[in-house]
């Protein structure tokens, strides 16, 4: 290899510690090399990509050592979808592309963005890509999207070959065009010509839509790899029946698609398919699951935005999702010992004093059963649909319950867990979860599922992460979160049963459903002015995105923004804010909305502030005799659809005149009360009913130096302690905890909680509040040491009993006494190999059950460092292996399967 004297690089070796499903830590050493980016671009491409391939090979090899989240799994999803960010997090994708070049500001930081050149690129595309790549916005580039399809990329081979050198010269790892057929004429010709011209193609992208035959699809991957001898990215694939119509339904079933996905995704993670570097399932988001559309059986998302059971499987592929016992739940149901299997309004056995609930409520379509087991709650008559829950909802075949905060409280939900159910061989096997705020539309969370049992069986369903749902965070008093569980997929409406709970044994006297989260106490202030605008200094029709003249310090605002459909007035119109060319429609605001003939403004509460909007001030306007005389006022929360507030009207003036519109009371709109931190409220005002496009002037203001427009409301501030930082560090084989608060109001004390390894959190110590409203610094030293990871958190308690938890910190004491103890494999089947410090004459290994019973005791050969032990005679369960010598004792937990 040639030497490049001007090539500057630096390297760093670091360790990545990963906890595997067997609760062992595997340490991976990774070499990080950073090249001077300018010089790197000048190196021969073959040399550069030999280096990159070498490094990727190291990482690929290491990735085979751990059973962790797939780094291959991604999602193709357009960024114009309002909730695309949530969808990426729901599917736990590691990368994403949206058939576009530019990275959205809403892209989750945990999900890598990959740009795509859709059709024939322009010079500006290259300029942007070069700049964004240098800025670190992405690391790979996708070539043309289906260039052989007129309705897609629509690029000829000649055009693609002509553009390719410009793409190569960007110096970005580059994927091939994604033709509709990776073995077709267009693709084979392009790859042949690129190879002849020595044009770089770093990986091949592949699209596929066929039937649910996993063997055929995997065979295709092998053929394409053999054909081009390059790594493969599967950028679109799904099961499709292109002949599906209302008169000829889709011939495939959802279980067939799920079986295909299970087989293929499992195969793609094996060494045999290591040449497949990435994949992304294609799931349209603008259709509902049905029998009439080609992709209706391949959807990852339901029409309500939540995961289908196919999406649930895709999300949890290669991710360990163990059930973790509820820790101090806010609300939990233990149905053991119920007086009736179907009694209405079953109340929770655990309920935080800050909360209220309806309890479990059966839908009208659920039938009571005559079971004598009163340790369960449910019934029969569940839906026999296998994917569409519409019929189940319309027939009342579901369970409802709700949660709301009491006065001056708010709650945030982080997890739904401990879900324990019973279903029989003909009962439902899919369980859709939805939520709604107050009377709003239900939104999807996910769809859990189990394999159909051959007999009545108890199932423990996965925990559900609720922290990614903004609606379920900081829910303040006055708002109710409604939850709905819809069991479906029964094979018999009459004999199929579903219950929450388990069975009659006392061992199952435990929670069957609960929620973890946090509570905040808030204090609401008096109604005050939140924002107002004075237009006296405006010129030329007013500034776009004009900030409020006054804005409460607890808020951020977009300012006043004119729609693109109106025309700014001349510079001679001063001391006003507005435009002309408002909607001429006299029947309603719709034409004004579609024509962007409106203006908007928005407010976002800052951290730890809840805002209630009570009224829009009487605003002063000035219109011409040809201007609009009707004003529709609407609001929207975040990216949701706008909703009507009211319509104001005036009498058309004979000449340009000033008007003062009446106060608009919005205090009765629940969505506008106690709006939580970082949630945006958008207001839109649509003037309509003008009579002339050119002279239909409308302005805010009346030429006087007064506030002419504003909004009133109240601010509620969070009262509990505000935690600024919390750390846990290993210092001389002890763990030193330090934390700092920025505010302590109505605050009593901290409880330090610790768990070791896979144990439970237990109280370690109490620390009284310093009582300073400006905050304080605290520290605590934990003298306990073990080889397992120590986890710590702070339980923060107010004088009124409100409880909140800090985030969790952990510390590893791997150098404890510079010795180590380990065993492999864990879980064990018949034999384990134990590694230990150098044995002396007094060294021994003992195996102890978790009940304290001794099962084995082995003297160790002096100077030895490992020993194989036969554990085949041990019963299944948890054990502790203990190493003793004359100066120390160490223990390690293992599982016998």
Describe the structure.
Residues 82-314 form the Asl1-like glycosyl hydrolase catalytic domain. Residues 823-893 form the Secretion system C-terminal sorting domain. It holds the Pfam family Glyco_hydro_cc. 13% of the residues lie in helices and 35% in strands. Residues 1-68 have low confidence and may be disordered. The chain starts with 8 loop residues before the first strand and ends with a strand. The protein has 897 residues and is mainly beta. The protein folds into 5 domains: 74-316, TIM Barrel; 331-521, Jelly Rolls, CATH 2.60.120; 528-717; 722-812, Sandwich (Immunoglobulin-like); 822-896, Sandwich (Immunoglobulin-like), CATH 2.60.40. A hairpin with a 5-residue loop joins strand 17 and strand 18. Helix 7 packs parallel to helix 8 and helix 8 packs parallel to helix 9. It has 11 helices and 54 strands. The strands form 11 sheets. Strands 9, 10, 15, 20, 21, 24, 25, 26, 31, 36 and 39 form an 11-stranded antiparallel beta sheet that branches. A 6-stranded parallel beta sheet has the order 5-4-3-8-7-6.
Overall mean pLDDT stands at 84
Number of domains: 5
Cα gyration radius (Å): 32 Å
Report, as a whole number of angstroms, the end-to-end distance. Answer: 52 Å
How many helices? The count is 11
Considering the chains and any ligands shown, give keywords for the structure:
Jelly Rolls, 5 domains, GH, TIM Barrel, disordered N terminus, 11 helices, mainly beta, six-stranded parallel sheet, 897 residues
